[in-house]
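Researcher: I need the complex structure. Ligand is magnesium ion. Inputs:
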Amino acid sequence: MAAAGTAPLKKYKLVFIGDQSVGKTSIISRFMYDTFDTHYASTIGIDFVSKSVPIDRGTVRLQLWDTAGQERFRSLIPAYIRDSQVAVVVFDITSRASFDSTTTWIADVRAQRGNDVIIVLVGNKTDLVSQREVSAAEIEQRANEQEIMFIETSAKEGFNIKLLFRRLATVRARAAARRAPRARRSPPAARRRRPCRRWRRARRRPTRRSCS
Ligand code: GDP
Ligand code: MG
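Model: Output:
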């Protein structure tokens, strides 16, 4: 519980999606524990871990949900995505097939969350330079078409991993802050009146005085 006078830590749910073996679990492990394992076995069940991330104004807590093998059971994905604020769509830059799949993964997120979600396209395994099948320009183009963020990472080398999470935390917190002042402007429910008919009709710049 937050101490008196201290605002509770903002929590955001991030879901990791993308084909199997693209490095979702490895990205989470690198960020959480600064480790990398070449022999990851997919485990059963959806699990999550959380970590606090400092941003320009304070700290936010990120809850990271990993799909552990459910990528094969797409019917489970909608429930998994449903109440997320951020979707991390990962592919492997050495696998064009995994890049092609991102279109469907992004569509799944949009179908569940509409525009009420931040999506980032992550091209992982940049350390495998000679095996690259997807160029940086293609990734940028896909991200622009879909109007989403993008970044390249290597969980193995730790490249851009901290930056990825810091950016997501910052962008998400800013999006929440943009929404907050509007919420404060609306009066408490008890004081809220049903607008008079003239108010309802006068769509453009209605004034309260005209309704008294
Ligand atoms: P997931 O199925 O998407 O969770 O993928 P994993 O995290 O289990 O990774 C699948 C395989 O790719 C494992 O053998 C990892 O060691 C390897 N891997 C993950 N990230 C990287 C990376 O950045 N570079 C390289 N070279 N291998 C990686
Ligand atoms: Mg995994």
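Model: Summary of the prediction. The domain at 10-179 is CATH 3.40.50.300 (Rossmann fold).
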